[in-house]
Task: structure prediction
Amino acid sequence: MTPEQLVEQAKEAMTHAYVPYSGYQVGAALLCADGTVYCGCNIENAAYSPTNCAERTAFFKAVYDGHRNFSAIAVCGGKDGVIKGAFPPCGVCRQVMREFCSEDFLVYLVNDTGYETVTLGELLPHSFSAGEHMI
Result:
């Protein structure tokens, strides 16, 4: 799967968002090492803290189905479905990614002109995961 194909799936996932409070739709497409793709959208809640981000939705669906090895994720978002600038994953999503992925995991940040590729290590420097110790 090309990064462009993954980006298109993230854009489509964005249309499924449930965002009655903020109006900000976010979509994610997670590429598993075996080529399977899991999509997710953000799902808001009136109590706010139970709100779930698109990235975590995709990861949790994949983990539920038994996947533990991931190659990349594309993330996009925008007010009322219009992409303007990139929507980098929040800190909680970055830590969920790090739980399952190494620092070289690819993150495609979709914007209104295309996408930027960054690594998880760039988004979450000095991170650690299960079995590792902080420096």
About this structure: DSSP finds four helices and five strands in the chain. The radius of gyration is 14 Å. Residues 108 and 117 are 5 Å apart (CA to CA). The first strand starts at residue 24 and ends at 32.
